[in-house]
């Protein structure tokens, strides 16, 4: 379904849903030939899983991340606005890197005051946290930051970081894709000696799902309060 949503596979349901026929599309054939573009960035997933440990560590000079951004920029410039599978792949890679960073910044509320006041990002922040400086360079490439200030587009994404929470929380599962697809998937459900799940960051998952449902619950509250503020005869029975 994931590949079909990208137009790389065609799914046809047969025999009243008992069978499904899959066909690789021309677009999918081209994309698979370019799959090697993902390799370098997917090797970075273990770091992305623990990105909260690196973003705010003053002792970390994350040269590897800066190197990835340079490679991504070259790839993006090469296929800019081409609307080809190669262009889509660069967008996927951007999401792979941006998603965990957005969620970590959202959970920590690190830039909340700066965005609300529309202040420039203090140089001291970038001096104290070298990884944050690399992130700002990345956001500048995405046009989320301009002249050390968040653009409207950048604010749009940062304010919606919670929407990425659930997806990013399953990065530990994606890191074990080979085992999941071709090995023993039951290994994913093992817990650590402390009883923690190994296939999901549960704290992040709860944060993401809670935030995603916040609007729904708020609307339900409004409906319930409105109903029970009505005269007694107009309130629901039971």
Automatic annotation (TrEMBL):
Coiled coil (UniProt feature): none
Domain AprA-like MT2-like: start-end pairs: 197-237
A Pfam family reported for this protein in Swiss-Prot or TrEMBL: WHD_AprA
InterPro entries hit by this protein: AprA-like_MT2, WH_AprA
Residues of the AprA winged helix domain: 94-184
Protein name: Uncharacterized protein
């Amino acid at each position: 379904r994931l590949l079909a949503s990208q137009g790389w596979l065609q799914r046809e349901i047969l025999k009243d849903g008992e069978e499904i026929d899959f066909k690789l599309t021309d677009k999918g054939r081209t994309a698979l030939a370019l799959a090697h573009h993902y390799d370098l960035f997917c090797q970075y997933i273990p770091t992305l899983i623990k990105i909260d440990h690196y973003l705010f560590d003053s002792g970390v000079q994350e040269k590897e991340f800066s190197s990835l951004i340079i490679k991504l920029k070259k790839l993006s410039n090469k296929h800019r606005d081409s609307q080809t599978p190669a262009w889509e792949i660069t967008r996927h890679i951007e999401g792979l890197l941006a998603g965990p960073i957005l969620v970590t910044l959202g959970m920590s509320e690190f830039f909340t005051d700066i965005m609300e006041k529309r202040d420039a990002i203090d140089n001291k922040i970038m001096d104290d946290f070298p990884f944050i400086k690399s992130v700002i360079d990345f956001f500048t490439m995405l046009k989320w930051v301009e002249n050390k200030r968040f653009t409207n587009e950048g604010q749009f994404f940062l304010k919606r970081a919670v929407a990425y929470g659930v997806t990013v929380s399953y990065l530990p599962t994606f890191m074990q894709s080979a085992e999941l697809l071709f090995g023993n998937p039951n290994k994913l459900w093992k817990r650590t000696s402390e009883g923690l799940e190994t296939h999901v960051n549960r704290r992040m998952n709860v944060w993401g799902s809670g935030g995603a449902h916040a609007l729904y619950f708020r609307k339900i509250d409004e409906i319930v309060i409105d109903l029970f503020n009505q005269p007694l005869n107009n309130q629901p029975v039971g």
